[in-house]
Amino acid sequence: MSIQEQIKEVVTTHRVVLFMKGTKQFPQCGFSARAVQILQAAGCEDFVTVNVLENDEVRQGIKEYANWPTIPQLYVNGEFIGGSDIMMEMFEAGELAEVLKA
Known about the structure:
CATH architecture: 3-Layer(aba) Sandwich
Number of helices: 5
Protein name: Glutaredoxin
InterPro entries: Glutaredoxin, GRX_PICOT-like, Monothiol_GRX, Monothiol_GRX-rel, Thioredoxin-like_sf
Family: Belongs to the glutaredoxin family. Monothiol subfamily.
Mean pLDDT: 96
Keywords: 2Fe-2S, Iron, Iron-sulfur, Metal-binding, Redox-active center
Number of domains: 1
Pfam family, one: Glutaredoxin
Structural class: alpha+beta
Helix content: 40-55%
């Protein structure tokens, strides 16, 4: 199975997936920490995280999968939502909670 197929399987198997540096319990970059805090503030506790630092193929592959150069990356219901800046804008506008409820 190719790395792209593996990534697709993860984002389509789980409702909310955050590709990040580190884990939910121990983020290893400020943007990833902020992404976790935003999801929790939006009332989402049941999200899955993928630590891209554990696998270089995943780290590169996720950038190609979404055609998005940075990490973290949020997926909801198999759809790419954005990185921490977009998450923050959506959270402040009340849009993130709506996407997470859908």
